[in-house]
């Protein structure tokens, strides 16, 4: 994208953008159309899951499907409030001991009854396989089975957000027999206790779930849910308009305003918990030099790029945590657009003529647009950056192995707590697939994050997280891009769809009329 076209696009966006944080509603009379199948709920989303094993991945597409199949011990509703999930009772014996009771009538999809032994197996396996989301229960020492319906979770230290973390989809309870029988293929043969059971997965095309008639929470509103994987934003939009799908996730910002005006469609913009960022691999030169990282931050006009990419449906980020996340430091100044200062820092770091590098992104149109804009702006300070685009699953695998230079990703602070938004991304124990793909670590940040995890004092936690965010800002392992709104849309014949702030939308009560 050249400078002239960029400025023209910005001008068009300023004239047409809807207000941020608004919910678009259809204009005019609703179209007199019917769903293709009232019994089958069809959901369009951008990409396949990486796996349906909660211990094999921690990505959003996987979580969106697994949310329908599995259940964790605690439940987090659309307002991020925590209540009992699989458990019927929780008792805090002392700051490091929690006792749980589970009902005796909860069945897995394979017919087995849920017992405390399945809970014990789940958390032992999470640790054994070093699951990407194992940091969620790092404070857990052990699970003690009292009887088939009672167990205790013993912590190594007091951990404030423990119950909140137990509502995360990655802590869903597994059936030991199903896992052992499936072996290495378990990620394609999942068994949970949720309202829908797995039927079929056609990679790159669709995934089918059936209603689980013995679900302890009652009968799901739809007989089947079919997820269709439609990579291109425009194609997902067309599929919704033509009635091929009933709901779409991650509506493209360029399509949202138009969809909001289509009769028979509800377009929904809601405040989310997501941070978009471009990370540096600090294990590679020249990104091991903080002057280079700061120079790149200064070389990029992030507000302009965010306006172009999101068309008013995101806020430029000044730090790592969205304002909706507990203990987000909203006082960080952000990096100004200052190419002259960027060139000075590059000269000081020994790169008076810049250098050659790569920007990686998956096949996400918003990230690709950022990359194209940044490619031009980096060239303005002497940095030649080629863009490499790949499918999402190999993209996650390769960035976890540290093969990249710069990369673009998003992170959803699912629990709404700073621990989840900071620990996995910036603690030195979380390099690679656990979340820290920059391979950046800082002893003071490690100490602060560890301290905030064990503190029971909200003010002490706030101070620790605020200081940790200041250091992250100063050391700049990221370019802080945007806090985006969650954009979704559904046909008006569809009822019961309520977006979840974390993006893990629950479909149990959703149906076509």
Task: Describe what this molecule looks like in 3D.
This protein is α+β, with helices and mostly antiparallel strands and 513 residues long. Among the domains are: 71-172, Dipeptide-binding Protein, Domain 1 (Dipeptide-binding Protein, domain 1, Alpha-Beta Complex), CATH 3.90.76; 272-485, Roll (Dipeptide-binding Protein, domain 3), CATH 3.10.105. The chain is 31% helix and 23% strand. It has helices at residues 3-16, 60-69, 116-128, 162-165, 176-182, 233-241, 253-260, 290-299, 302-310, 339-348, 365-379, 392-400, 418-426, 443-454, 458-475; strands at 40-45, 74-76, 82-84, 89-94, 97-101, 140-147, 150-155, 196-202, 206-211, 224-229, 247-248, 265-280, 314-316, 356-362, 384-390, 406-412, 478-491, 494-495, 511-512. The strands form four sheets. Strands 1, 8, 9, 10, 11, 12, 13, 14, 15, 16 and 17 form an eleven-stranded mixed sheet that branches. It has a four-stranded antiparallel sheet with strand order 4-5-7-6, covered by helices on one side. The chain is globular. The two termini are 44 Å apart.
What's this model, at a glance?
With 513 residues, this protein is an alpha+beta fold. 31% of the residues lie in helices and 23% in strands.
Features of the shown structure:
single chain, 513 residues, alpha+beta, Dipeptide-binding Protein, domain 1, Dipeptide-binding Protein, domain 3, four-stranded antiparallel β-sheet, disordered N terminus
């Amino acid at each position: 994208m050249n400078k002239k076209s960029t400025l023209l696009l910005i001008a068009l966006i300023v004239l047409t953008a809807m207000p941020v944080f608004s919910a678009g509603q259809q204009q005019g009379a609703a179209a007199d159309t019917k769903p293709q199948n009232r019994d089958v709920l069809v959901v369009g989303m951008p990409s396949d899951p990486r796996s349906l094993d909660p211990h094999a991945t921690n990505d959003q597409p996987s979580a969106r499907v697994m949310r329908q199949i599995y259940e964790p011990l605690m439940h987090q509703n659309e307002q991020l409030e925590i209540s009992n999930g699989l458990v019927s009772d929780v008792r805090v014996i002392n700051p490091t001991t929690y006792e749980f009771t589970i009902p005796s009538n909860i069945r897995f999809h394979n017919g087995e009854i849920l017992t405390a032994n399945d809970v014990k197996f789940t958390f032992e396996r999470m640790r054994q396989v070093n699951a990407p989301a194992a940091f969620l229960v790092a404070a857990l020492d052990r699970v003690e089975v009292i009887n088939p319906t009672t167990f205790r979770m013993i912590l190594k230290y007091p951990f404030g957000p423990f119950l909140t973390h137990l509502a995360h989809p990655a802590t869903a309870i597994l059936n030991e027999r199903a896992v052992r029988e499936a072996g290495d293929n378990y990620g394609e043969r999942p068994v949970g206790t949720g309202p829908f059971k797995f039927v079929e997965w056609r990679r790159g095309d669709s995934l089918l779930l059936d209603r689980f008639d013995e679900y302890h929470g009652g009968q799901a509103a739809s007989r089947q849910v079919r997820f269709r994987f439609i990579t291109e934003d425009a194609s997902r939009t067309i599929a919704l308009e033509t009635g091929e799908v009933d709901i779409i996730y991650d509506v493209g910002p360029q399509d949202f305003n138009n969809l909001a005006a289509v009769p028979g469609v509800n377009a929904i913009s809601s405040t989310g918990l997501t941070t978009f960022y471009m990370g540096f691999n600090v294990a590679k030169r020249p990104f091991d030099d903080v002057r280079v990282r700061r120079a790149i931050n200064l070389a990029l006009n992030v507000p302009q790029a965010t306006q172009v990419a999101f068309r008013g449906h995101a806020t430029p980020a000044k730090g790592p945590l969205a304002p909706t996340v507990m203990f987000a430091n909203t006082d960080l100044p952000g990096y100004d657009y200052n190419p002259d200062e960027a060139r000075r820092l590059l000269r000081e770091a020994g790169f008076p003529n810049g250098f050659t590098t790569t920007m990686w992104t998956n096949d996400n149109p918003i990230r690709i647009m950022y990359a194209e804009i940044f490619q031009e702006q980096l060239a303005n300070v002497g940095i030649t950056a080629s863009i490499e685009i790949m499918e999402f699953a190999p993209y996650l695998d390769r960035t976890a192995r540290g093969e990249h230079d710069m990369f673009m990703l998003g992170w959803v602070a699912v629990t709404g707590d700073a621990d989840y938004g900071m620990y996995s991304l910036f603690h030195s124990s979380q390099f690679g697939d656990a979340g820290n793909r920059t391979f950046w670590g800082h002893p003071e940040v490690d100490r602060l994050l560890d301290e905030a995890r064990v503190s029971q004092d909200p003010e002490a936690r706030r101070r620790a997280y605020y200081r940790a965010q200041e250091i992250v800002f100063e050391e700049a392992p990221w370019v802080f891009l945007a806090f985006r709104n969650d954009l979704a849309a559904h046909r008006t014949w569809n009822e019961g769809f309520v977006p979840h702030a974390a993006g893990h939308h629950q479909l149990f009560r959703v149906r076509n009329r």
